Amino acid sequence: MAISNELMKDMYVRMRRIRDFESTAAKLFAEGKVPGFVHLYLGEEAIAPAVCECLRDDDFITSTHRGHGHIIAKGGDLKLMMAELFGRETGYCKGKGGSMHIADRDKGILGANGIVGAGHCISTGAGLSIKLRKTDQVCVCFFGDGSTNQGTFHESLNLASIWKLPIVFVCENNHYGISMSQARHQAIKDVADRAAAYNMPGISVDGNDPLAVYEAAFEAVARARAGKGPTLIECKTYRQHGHFEGDPATYKPKEEQAAWMAKDPLPRFARFLIDNGVMSAEEVEAVDKKVAKEIEDAIAFAEAQPIPSPESSVVDVYSDIVEEVRER
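Now predict its structure.
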């Protein structure tokens, strides 16, 4: 399929934003400036930008604990994201959600989620909402290989298939569920094979090649928008860091790590763009500098924002206990 130069350029910008945001988040976490846990998308940058290029602004996505890349790819505000990581009052979730719970309803980002497999169910709800409202929107559900062993995965694919919901299930197979390799936690090689049980297309692609991901996602999104039901796309990739920052990842064989680092999606795509005349080396460098400035501005914004007051801890929280506290 023909992919325009402008689309490929935009894909590179999104990939570069994710890479720089995540590399910076790792540094800030190590310096103690980012509280809580941080799970990085480093090494997986080819997937979310390619998929989100196929979506409209009013389409939805669901995310995971490793969600920064999805949010950036769907158009999330870097400043508000950084403020949330810093735990500041003007962050996406008023500094209360942190890295794993960023959402932006206005952009169709239904939220990163700290519960493994929760996005499957949220996407099914979103898909049913679309069908009941009779719109032609689509919901993309991003998730990892480890979550495909959860009951939520099978229940959601089953319902989506029965009801022909407009969902694209995107498995980002980075080959590890925390510290356990896929070879040890599944008896199958390709997660995409599981689509057959639910009578939907199952496609496995090189998750480090944004063009391969885009082609698969384009067809799946068009199929969903036309009312033909869900698709399962498996994108084979590799997380370059540990499960979370602070995890030394000693369980990953050095040879395996080296082989995947040689297939790093960002320099690989940059070389492709230059070699095929889509961008010059100077244009790539200019994008890199522009994005670096965006990250610097996001940090400056976050550091200047106020810390939430102790009183705000019971705001936007709904329970009988909270009501009792308020009454006192």
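The longest helix spans residues 5-30.
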